[in-house]
């Protein structure tokens, strides 16, 4: 099964001829309640919002921010400076896999820290949320994502699975009898969320691993405090590979849509995360998904989300939508400026904040 993707031109043609098929399903004769008063097929809607309004919101956000030149590419991973800075894409996905997109949505970039909640989901699947809480923690640090200070001032050391320390610990918690098996399980899990095989970007991995002195220090500190659960260098290698997987904006949108759909991938229909664990994972994303900007993000956009220094962000509207955006120019906290602004605007215009509408 493949996701159905809309563009502005394609959407207008679908509406004008009255044809719609959801998420790869064959077109079906309209039921009576899908007919307009005139007897013609009504425009499709998702969670009470018409398809044209969704596409318009995506197109407007793309147009409003595509020429923004604030920020710069991450440079502590040298190869990330080579990503063209003007790339920008937005995808809004529904729980049935329908996509509304604009811009550079098929370009492959490294997933980086957006991988973290999905590996935390694998820990939940293999063990339980209680084990995640006990062995890693779930509290926000209020500090940068790569902070070593957090390991010293917080009793749990790793603190939560969305900062580097907690994410490396999560990799070490995966039940595997070898490094190859650990990597296979993590990669397969991320691919299951995306609904397609994700490939390792070898040059990104090598660039990141060759300069991983900070993360190597974190892994060894965790090990010394008995908060790492496999060999430190093994955990570091697998974690670095996890971050170097290639994704597109479309991939991220489907990963988010899987969470919006109660843990079931809308393309493969595989239950990737147990439904009862989804709210717990989204809660961690809400409190720690933007690192030391998480409170500001939730106040402005009101959506659980995860960001990565590769330039991607994915946000989840539980039961309704996922919004992914990509642009490599980052702010000082390591979050994509264009992607933040685009998702924030779409959330505000469509009234998607989980605590209520957060209009501009």
From TrEMBL:
Alphabetized SUPFAM superfamilies for the sequence: beta-lactamase/transpeptidase-like
**PANTHER family membership:** GLUTAMINASE, GLUTAMINASE 1
Any idea what this protein is called?
A: Glutaminase
Quaternary context: Homotetramer.
- Catalyses which reaction(s): L-glutamine + H2O = L-glutamate + NH4(+)
Its source organism is: Pontiella agarivorans
Give the family this protein belongs to, as stated in its UniProt record: Belongs to the glutaminase family.
Q: What residues does substrate bind to?
A: 113, 164, 208, 215, 239, 291, 309
């Amino acid at each position: 099964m493949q996701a159905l993707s809309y563009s502005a031109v394609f959407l207008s043609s679908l509406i004008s001829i009255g044809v719609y098929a959801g998420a790869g399903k064959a077109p079906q004769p309209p039921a009576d309640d899908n007919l307009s008063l005139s007897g013609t097929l009504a425009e499709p809607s998702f969670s009470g919002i018409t398809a044209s309004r969704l596409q318009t919101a995506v197109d407007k956000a793309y147009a409003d921010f595509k020429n923004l030149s604030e920020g710069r590419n991450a440079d502590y991973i040298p190869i990330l400076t080579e990503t063209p800075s003007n790339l920008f894409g937005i995808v809004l996905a529904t729980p049935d896999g329908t996509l509304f997109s604009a811009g550079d949505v098929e370009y492959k970039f490294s997933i980086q820290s957006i991988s973290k909640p999905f590996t935390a989901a694998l820990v939940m699947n293999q063990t339980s949320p209680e084990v995640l809480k006990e062995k890693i923690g779930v509290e926000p640090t209020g500090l940068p994502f790569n902070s070593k200070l957090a390991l010293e001032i917080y009793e749990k050391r790793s603190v939560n699975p969305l900062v580097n320390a907690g994410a490396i610990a999560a990799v070490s918690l995966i039940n595997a009898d070898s490094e190859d098996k650990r990597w296979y399980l993590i990669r397969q899990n991320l691919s299951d969320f995306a609904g397609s095989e994700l490939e390792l970007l070898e040059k990104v991995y090598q660039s990141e691993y060759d300069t991983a002195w900070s993360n190597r220090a974190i892994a060894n500190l965790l090990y010394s405090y008995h908060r790492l659960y496999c060999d430190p260098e093994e955990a570091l290698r697998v974690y670095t590979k996890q971050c170097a997987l290639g994704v597109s904006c479309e991939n991220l949108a489907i990963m988010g849509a899987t969470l919006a759909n109660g843990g079931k991938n809308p393309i493969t229909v595989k239950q990737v995360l147990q439904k009862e664990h989804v709210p717990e994972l989204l809660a961690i994303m809400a409190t720690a998904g933007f690192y030391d900007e998480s409170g500001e993000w939730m106040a402005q956009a009101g959506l659980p989300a995860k960001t990565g220094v590769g330039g991607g962000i994915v946000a989840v509207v539980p039961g309704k939508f996922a919004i992914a955006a990509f642009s490599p120019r980052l702010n000082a906290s390591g979050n994509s400026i264009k992607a933040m602004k685009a998702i924030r605007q779409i959330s505000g215009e469509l009234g998607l904040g989980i605590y209520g509408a957060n209009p501009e």
